[in-house]
Structure formats: structure tokens, C-alpha cells
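Reagents: none. Just compute today. Glycosyl transferase.
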Amino acid sequence: MGKQTQSNRTPLCTRRGRTECEKLAVPPSKLRAKYGFATSEPPSILAVARNCTPAMKTIRIPHRPHRKSRPILWICCFLALSALWYFRRFLYTSWTLAVLPFVWTTHSSTFYISAEHDSFDVTFANYSKSQTSAHPYDDLVPPILHHISLGNDGQNSKHWRPAWDEAVQSCLDWHPGWDAHLWTDETAGKFVEEHFPEWKDMWDNYPYPIERIDALRYMVLYHYGGVVLDMDLKCKRSLGPLRRFGFVAPDANPTGFSIGFLMASKNNNFVGDIVRNLTVYNKRWFGLPYPSVMFSTGCHFASTIHSFQGDRTDLKILAGPNDMPKMHRLNGPVSTPLFDHLGSSSWHSYDASLIVALGRSSRWRHRIFFLVFSFTTIYCLKRLKLGSSLFSRIHHRRVASTDEGCNV
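Predicted 3D structure written out:
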């Protein structure tokens, strides 16, 4: 064929083809290698169309990310790091609460009371029921009993349960000569205002009364020392043999310790750490009563502070022997060597039964974990597939535009 004129070659490329091809911004070196141009200048779309052959129509020009996306990427990274820094305390407290089941048993043989490590009989069979001292050991815990009844006016309130009279009196009978405090709204408010004024506003504004009770038990235990008992614990013997330890709490289910019964020396460092962390963990966790109480002031919160202590050797946990590890757990209406627990946990709300049931059933925990993991995996795979599909569509659309310029 003869040499074509410029006017005959002009219709080979449309305006659309020119616009799409120019967006590709292909380097001149690649065009020379692919299309045989000798010039170092970027060729026009007419030159590309003039040299198109059927073999060239299938060429795929690699996609290059636009340089303008880099500032957006840096901005996103900066915002992400700023968010991590701003929420660092919340993320840390959430992490400490979440890992409690995994770190609680670390070096547990050093702080769980046992005959091998402490020469102590956890069944109390070798101790007299009326033994009020740890003789021949020193008494680290002062002889003081604390009972807390907030939200009412003590024994004259209509909310006072008759069984509490017998429970409180039994503990007084087994500990003759000990000082006894019954903390009510009036006496508790004055105590917090006088000795812990920086916590007074937080204490007054707790959304649930049980949070005020829990916080108060840590405060009186730190300031006075002694023994703090729930109102529904009926004493079966004296607690004197345990006074040799600077801190004692019973083992709890499924992990940590219970705060229904606490013993501590005056100005105990660990109890002081619990008091100082009340403000850090004071949040409406998940917007539900039970998690808010447990994670802000309850057993899970105190056990978390315990698990992150540098040396837990002197922070004793009372459990049963190896063949009866649940001997001293205060779950529901049970009888232990020390107490008859009436099990009147009236603060538990509608969400408590579900959470407790899930905690007791390992089968349900495994099922929930499997469902959450499966849905998360499927969601991530779909997102990755969607992103890959979107990129593929954009890339093929650009290639098709280039081929259209060659096919005209």
C-alpha cells in the first residue's frame, strides 16, 4: 500500500481515546521499546494509533499509583497515630482487663496459700475455732471488723434484711474485743470527704450503689486495715490464723479473687494501688450494669490490679487443697470452712445471668469465639476481594480505552 496522508490517518484516534491514553502518562523509554519510536519526546496519540498492529492491541500497560495519593496516606497515618495516643489510657486499661484470665495464674504458687509454701492448713482443721490471733506469728492485720450497708439507714431501714442481723452478730461473737464499724450513708460520706477528698465527687456520682460500696471497702481497708465482710456472710469461726498475712482474699470463679471478704494491714501498698486506680477504670463499660461494676470497682478490677503487681508473694489468695480447689469460693449460697454465704447478691442486673452463664460454659465460649472469628474472616476476605475487583475494573477500563484508540 502507498504511504497514507496525514488527513487519512487523523480519524484513527477519537477524542476519547486521546484523553484516556494521555492519562496513562507512559514514559517515552517504554514507548520506544514497545512501539519503535526513535524520538525521545512523548509521542502523540496519533503516533500510537499510526503504529498499532493486532499484536500490540493486547499489550497491558502497568498501572502506576498517582502521586497525589501519598499525602492522603500520610494524613491517614498521622490521624491513626494521633487517635492511638489520645486513647492510649483507655486502650491500656481495656487490655489489662482483657488479659486477666491469661496472666492471673503466672507464678500462682507463690501467692496462693498452701501447706508447702506457707506451712498453713487451708482446711483450718488444725486451728481452734476461737483463735483470734496468728500466734506464734506476728499479727499484721489489726483486729477491726468492717460491714458496709449503703443505700439505706442501717438496721432501721425497710431494706435491711433480717438475716443480716444474724450474720453480722455471728462475726462479732467470734471476734470478741475487736473494733467493729457498720458503715452507712452518713458515716461513709463523712469518711470519704475527710480522708479521700479527691475521690469524693467520683464516689458521690457512681451510677450504681454497689460501686460506692466496693470503693468504700478499699478505702476503709487502706485507712484502718482489718477485715471487710459482706453483709450476707455468717461467720463460722474466728479469722485469727489469717492475720499473719498482710493481705488475704478468697479465690473466685472463674479467675481472680472475691472482694466479699478481704483482710489487709493498715496502709497496705496493694490496697493503696487499688484506691488510686479507681479513677483510671471508672467507665461505663459497654453501657451495661454488670460489666461497669465488675470492671470499675468489682472483683475483675481488683484482680487486674493484683495481676500487674511487681511482686505478688505477700498478696495471698485463699483456696482449697489440690483435691478441693473450690473450698473457699463464695459463689451463691454455699458453706465454707469460714462462712455460710447467704448468696444475696441483689445488685446483679439483667445482663449478669447471661455473662455469668457464658463464663461458666467453656462450650459456649468456644462457640462464640468461633462465630466471631468466622464472621471477621469472611468480612476481611470480602473487603479484600472487593478492593481487588475494583482495581481490576479500573485497570481494564484504561486498557480498553487504549485498545479503542487502536481499533478506530
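The beta strands are 144-148, 179-183, 226-229, 233-235, 247-250, 261-264, 315-318, 339-341.
Action item: order primers for follow-up constructs.
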